[in-house]
Amino acid sequence: MNDELEYRAVLAVDIERSAGRGDRALLEIRARLTEMLEEAFEASGVDWSACLRHDLGDGLRVTAPAGTRKAALVHPLVPELALRLRTYNRGAGPLTRIRVRIALHAGDVHVSPDGTVAGSPLEVLARLLDAPPARAALAGAPKTVPASLLLSGHFYDETVRHGHLGLFPEDFRKVGFTVKEHTADAWLQLPGRQPPAEAAPEPADAQEEPAGSETAGSKTAGSKMVNKASGHGVVYATQHGTQHIRIERKH
Description:
By secondary structure, the protein is an alpha+beta fold. It is 25% helix and 29% strand. A hairpin with a 5-residue loop joins strand 9 and strand 10 (224-229). Helix 1 (23-43) runs antiparallel to helix 3.
């Protein structure tokens, strides 16, 4: 046995509610998920052919090549995969729609000449993939959200928390979980969730205060507040927080 350890990033995906769809549907969604994963890896600059891949039945485990930049497995890989899943699901039927849980971890593993990977980081990865917070978040999300992402504390600390390009720590929330003998904290995100709708714009016929007013005033049910700004400007603040600045010019 090779006793040399290699530090590798490991990713796993599991298809939500894959049981009970029948063999034909399962084969179809497994094949399509593999295709989309390959495309997402290549779009992220990670050589898919150099990855070590292991079938999980209704998902896949991927060991990235040595030296892979871990941040790339969060961004752009996860958004790339989420985009492909959302696009695919628009045209898929109930039996072939795909939503997945994604788990990411990294650590020292044994890599055998035949491509077999072993070590405790894979055990942690498996527990992350089965973690109840990730399952519950995906199950409770709108159907347009195609994935949940759970990062180990180690992976988050080494990548996301630094806020490098494309990585936003505020998009993740810390969760605790226990699966079998493993208890840990992890970081959860729902890739592909759409931002909340913006507040409705102020009605076009809303009345404005005279531009030359020197006093600050407000209206009840207050559509506007007007303040004279320093220089020659008037600042209008609506009840929704929108600010409009009018510049008065002397002729």
